[in-house]
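[Meeting: bench + compute handoff]

Bench side (C.D.) handed over the final construct sequence. Compute side (W.E.) agreed to return the predicted structure before the next meeting so the bench team could plan truncations. Sequence as handed over:
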Amino acid sequence: FTYKTYLRRDYQNGMKNIRYLLLPLSILYRWVTWFYHLLYNKGILHSRRFRIPVISVGNLTTGGTGKTPHVEYLVRLLLRSEEGFFDRVATLSRGYGRATTGFILADEKSTAIEIGDEPRQMKQKFENIFVAVDENRVHGIDQLLTMVPGLNVVLLDDAFQHRRVKPGLSILLRDFQGVSRKHLMLPAGDLREPLSGAKRADIIIVTNSPKMLSPHERRRIKDILRPTEDQALLFSYVAYDDLIPALGSHEHIMANKTFYFEREYAILLITGIADPLPLKEYYGQNIGELIHMRFSDHHEFTMVDIQRIQKNFDNIANESKIILTTEKDAMRLAIPGVAKAFENLPIFYLPIKIRFQDDDGEKFNKQIIDYVTKN
């Protein structure tokens, strides 16, 4: 029993007490969201349908399920489809964390401050697609239809609770570890709406699953989620690509992750995402020393943060050391003032891609292509 253990237990007990205090608000929030969705389910409030395919990707909880990587998977699928005509693909999100409001159609110069970190990541990775942000999704789709003649499909990022738009295909993401957990409604917990909302989904994807998934685990998850006969239940996991210089100033430095893993480099990991645990576990299996600096989701880095990062990096005794971050965080580190302060540090990010278990990928691809083609 150590002092750190005592502090950890004290913190956990404090969080439990706070949650108990917030329970009345969670009960109120549950009834408000239930009534909100009831109004749409009964047709009292109306959802807008559009004349082109609209695919929504979302979740029931606050962050951590991998919405953006799954939207990226959809983009790659549509752009490389054997059908060959899905060349005008658009993504639309509210642009969480941006300092602007209203509709913005991103270009190559758009920053994370203007459009948010995830849309900037999308535009940087896929130059030929149309990336837009608008807190009003109906208005956003209308603007895209006006500005992009011949638009093939709109992908809505994080729009499962946005009932004003009626998507033609709705994809719900559930985290593998989170499926077995008990969830409370906001603000005491992380649920945005009651679990019964999952019935609106056409496809349920259990994300962040183990790379090797047994048939027993599949059945266990299926028994918990109880999908309807019309819902496809699929499983995906994360695959890691090679390192990429975060700020473009270290292209000359070796970016092969195996190089650093084999030579036992020390890694200072900087994360501003909802759930950094899978990333920590991945690095923990491959390196000897990992120092983690965790910030809140969508954190905007300040000069104070930069000084802390520099100090922690300098304090690492191992002379063989680098800084790693996530692709989303790299978008916020690329802001001019912040990027200038980091220009002399070897900082990289590790891109991720979505892979599906067994033949789930084939099933998913077929359902997506069939829907877009028919519509």
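W.E. noted at the follow-up: The two ends are 62 Å apart (CA to CA). C.D. will use this when planning the next construct.
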